[in-house]
Amino acid sequence: MITQVDAFTNKPFAGNPAAVCVLQEDRDDRWMQLVAREMSLSETAFLRKTEEGFDLRWFTPSVEVDLCGHATLASAHVLWEEGHLPAAATARFRTRSGILTAGRQDSWIAMDFPAKPEVEAAPPDGLQEALGVPLVYVGKSQFDYLVEVDSEERVRKLDPNIALLSRVEARGIIVTSRCESKEFDFVSRFFAPRAGVNEDPVTGSSHCCLGPYWRKKLGKSDFVAYQASARGGIVRVAAKGDRVQLCGQAVTVFRGALI
Q1: Taking the mean position of all CA atoms in its chain, how far away is CA 242?
Q2: DSSP alpha helices (H): ranges in the chain?
Q3: pTM listed for this prediction
Q4: Is 43 a residue of the active site?
Q5: Where in the chain is the domain with CATH 3.10.310.10?
Q6: Given 25, 38, 43, 120, which residue is catalytic?
Q7: Tens digit of each residue's pLDDT (9 = 90 or more) over 61-78
């Protein structure tokens, strides 16, 4: 059985779609990579029940990744909705980024993730040319480059050269700015062509960097963020020391059988 879930949204066909496969038996890496390629989504999650909770792995159509927020959100949603976990139980995942947990908060799902703060860095060769906009700040986290630009409009209208961006040696590029309305604290977009995802619709793991970054800039810890892709999605972020709480909603779109 495989389930497709739209994450970081409360309505179908928005947010970030992820496929979730709860395995009944062990499967090898090649099989999981082929399924992820077949699904052709930014991530497909594979879950296997253990005594402590669930093993969780994430695959793009091209590679396995170390951390993924929206597919973790989708996984927790599926575990509760399909009866793999009681409605009040905390979902506990063993992953390549350590133990992650998720719990229900009314219609929202709250996930506990590791913070991935950036440090200021020189822009890598080709980054300015690829983005085609002035760069206010460039930092580097464990996985990604974070780029602040001077306005929300620049973030929303950004049309990067993906071929050039794919030459930047990082999992992905986060582009962000403060939000000009009171509805959200900051906006962002995320590009990861080296991982086979030109633009990710809504990226939970990038907010593990964005939360600590905007905490330093804005002097507060709790945010409502918007990822301004074509599909768009809302992420509630709480930056707490070396952890970040990410909250989002999710909705199932369809279920099918793998043969």
Answers
A1: 18
A2: 29-39, 69-81, 127-131, 152-157, 162-165, 207-218
A3: 0.91
A4: yes
A5: 2-104+249-256, 119-241
A6: 43
A7: 999 999 999 999 999 999
